[in-house]
Write a structure and sequence with these properties.
The chain has eleven helices and 18 strands. It folds into three domains: 125 residues, 3-Layer(aba) Sandwich (Aminopeptidase); 149 residues, Gcn5-related N-acetyltransferase (GNAT) (Aminopeptidase), CATH 3.40.630.30; 94 residues, Nonspecific Lipid-transfer Protein, Chain A, CATH 3.30.1050.10. The chain is globular, with a radius of gyration of 23 Å.
């Protein structure tokens, strides 16, 4: 019989354990054979934690050390990817023990946040994660793009332009809520994908760049045409957006559709005449506040907002988060002190959704994740955490 007390968590001790974790991923998450070993090599065995029972590997998780943009600031975030438990150890508490130990380590390493994409939500909610934002995949026929604007230039990007592409991405990410502060592992997926040939183009106005697009093309089965998959697209102006749309439309003789991960209110759709796009995939990612003080002080806030909110946080997993906190916002910065009368009472899961702006305090109140005695506290929280709808284009 397996008990939580008999489970232990640590990094792999040898190659055999890494390979066993790979086999668990193949069986539990349907990773194609051998792909899990490519993933582990790219991730690094030092970023894997295994849970064992009696010396045998019962499951494991990997994580990526990166950041996530909120209010114009990159907050350190440990992205969990993926979690796999062998079938014979499911419902034994192995995943719960694994996640709780990993969260303690993230805290020790100075990560105020942790995020993931769930295959199932209950186990992650028990660990304190909650929905934080969206990843939306769109599909649009190239024949529906009616934009023909070549005001700006377009040139193929070279290896020397990769740093410029990163800078353009960061300029967009600062204006969003939830985009990742990508580390090299994720940039390799965009600029050096393992499948297909990536084509990268910069949108230019004179010597300055205002956007870019990186894509691969895949043949549509039983046809002579292809679909275009955008690995990344950034347009920092309406002119840049129109130039990118024109560039895409110029492929319409051989390409049927363009497919990409975009914002919930995707600006490119406002530049075409009709609503011709479809949502191919809609997925919610989850966030975990690992350290309340560091998370609230680490993100940015809307300049000009001068407000205060008093929080009483409950966290059954990470006890240092439980208590009363006062967040004072001024000049785009947040300062946190202990105390106050706890005008808003919320579980740490509710704090995650409030923190990203995924749910307003009024919506959280309707879910039962937040309670308020004074309507003015709700109004203050709504003002402080207002911002763009949180989203990200990346899967990790």
């Amino acid at each position: 019989m397996t008990t939580r007390e008999s489970l232990e968590v640590s990094a792999p001790v040898d190659r055999r354990e890494v390979e066993e974790f790979g086999r668990i991923l193949t069986q539990s998450l349907f990773f194609p054979p051998l792909e899990e070993f490519d993933w582990i090599a790219a991730q690094g065995a030092e970023n894997i934690r295994l849970v064992r029972q009696g010396g045998e590997v019962a499951g494991g998780l990997g994580f990526v050390r990166m950041g996530q943009w909120f209010g114009g600031k990159s907050v350190p975030m440990a992205g969990v990817r993926p979690v796999g438990v062998a079938p014979e150890y499911r419902s034994s508490g192995a995943a719960t023990v694994l996640l709780r130990e990993a969260l303690k380590e993230f805290h020790q390493d100075g990560f105020p946040l942790s995020g993931l994409y769930p295959t199932t939500q209950p186990v992650y909610r028990r660990a304190g994660y909650e929905q934080g934002g969206n990843k939306t995949r769109y599909k649009m026929p190239l024949a529906a793009i009616d934009v023909r604007d070549r005001t700006l230039g377009m040139r193929r990007a070279t290896e020397e332009d990769h740093e410029l592409i990163r800078e353009l991405y960061t300029r967009r990410a600062r204006q969003t809520s939830g985009n990742l502060d990508r580390e090299q592992f994720l940039w390799n997926r965009v600029l050096r994908p393992q499948r297909g040939t990536a084509y990268a183009y910069l949108v230019t106005r004179g010597d300055e760049a205002e956007g870019y697009v990186v894509y691969v093309q895949e043949r549509v089965p039983n046809t002579f045409n292809a679909d275009m998959y955008l690995l990344d697209v950034v347009a920092l102006s309406a002119d840049a957006g129109r130039r990118i749309l024109t560039f895409l439309a110029d492929h319409r003789s051989v390409v049927e559709n363009v497919i990409w991960n975009g914002a919930p209110a995707e600006p490119l759709f406002y530049l075409v005449a009709n609503q011709s796009h479809k949502v191919e995939e809609y997925w919610k990612w989850m966030l975990r506040v690992v350290d309340v003080r560091s998370a609230l002080e680490g993100r940015g806030y809307t300049p000009g907002v001068e407000a205060e909110v008093r929080l009483e946080v409950r966290d059954d997993v990470l006890p240092w988060n439980t208590g009363r906190w006062v967040l004072e916002v001024s000049g785009g910065e947040g300062r946190v002190r202990e105390g106050g009368d706890g005008g808003l009472q919320l579980d740490v899961r509710g704090l995650a959704s409030l923190y990203t702006g995924h749910l307003s305090p009024y919506e959280l109140q309707a879910t039962g994740l937040l309670e308020a005695g004074d309507p003015r506290d709700l109004a203050s929280a709504a003002l402080i955490f207002a911002g763009p709808t949180p989203w990200m284009p990346d899967m990790y």
